[in-house]
Amino acid sequence: MATSPEVVREELAAVTAAASADLAAQAAAASSAQALDSLLETLPLIVPPYYDAAGLLAVAWYDEIREESAPLTAYVPDVIGDPSTDWIEREIAKLQRSVEADIEEQMQRLVDETMRLAEKEVARGFRESIVGNTRQDEDAIGWSRVARPSACKFCLMLAAKGAVFSKETAIFAAHTDCHCAARPEFRGGTHGPEASVVQYVASSRRAKTEAAQAARNERLRAYLNQHYPDAPG
Asked: What is the pLDDT of residues 100-147, one digit of tens each?
């Protein structure tokens, strides 16, 4: 029997936490004034191995679930995607500019945010490997989202009813501190219904204009507040 989604999600959380711990140790070894610079310099060295570890966790689980579905074709999954820390540096640079007046007092905040973003990038190794392999595998029909019980409104909505997202159209939308995982779904396996229109819209890329994006965000927020009033976020 394949490992349960809950266990795999916890294993992914352990990988991201290990990456964060390594980064925290790097920051702690430097003076407070140099902690952020030290962290940013080592991101390209620390993040990639953990990205690959998360990807290998995904590949192993993908194989387990695929085997249970009695596939008609042979397929060997692999880690997909390349880790990138450039976007993290850009986000921190923007945040830095906003707190430049009291940078010393805000140093720990900047360090903490850097580690949170690094965890998101490490988790992408798992999610991209699941989603990417379903796009290449003839027996895959797509993927579903695995959210923790205490997840935010957004994640609970995307994971509702075990919705299956098409391997051709959907992306895995994830916010910082997102603890969701992706589960591959196959023709011969047991899976939920196809994702609804609102789930597809929420998991799609940003709208073409800021105005269109703002309107979409407003509609989505109203939907989340109506259907998930007790969830955080």
From this structure: 656 666 788 889 999 999 999 999 999 999 999 999 999 999 999 999
232 in a domain, yes or no?
no
Read off φ and ψ for residue 147, nearest 5 degrees. -110, 150
163: closest CA among 178, 175, 150, 145? 145
CB–CB of 73/28 below 8 Å?
Answer: no
216 in a structural domain: yes
**Cα–Cα dist 80/210, whole Å:** 31
Q: Is the distance from CB of 85 to CB of 47 less than 8 angstroms?
A: yes
Q: What is the secondary structure of 188-231 as a DSSP string?
A: TS---PBPPHHHHHHTSPPPSSHHHHHHHHHHHHHHHHHH-TTS
Residue 233 maps to a domain: no
Angle at which helix 35-68 crosses helix 86-98, to 10 degrees, equals 140
Domain extent at residue 68 = 5-227
Sheet containing 140-146: which strands, arranged edge to edge?
164-166, 140-146, 181-186
Q: Tokens for 85, please give them.
A: 């820390």
The domain total for the chain is: 1
Rounded to whole angstroms, the Cα distance separating 223 from 25 reads 42
pTM of the shown model: 0.90
Considering the domain boundaries, does residue 166 fall inside one? Answer: yes
φ/ψ region of 112 (left if φ > 0, alpha if ψ in -120 to 50, else beta) reads alpha
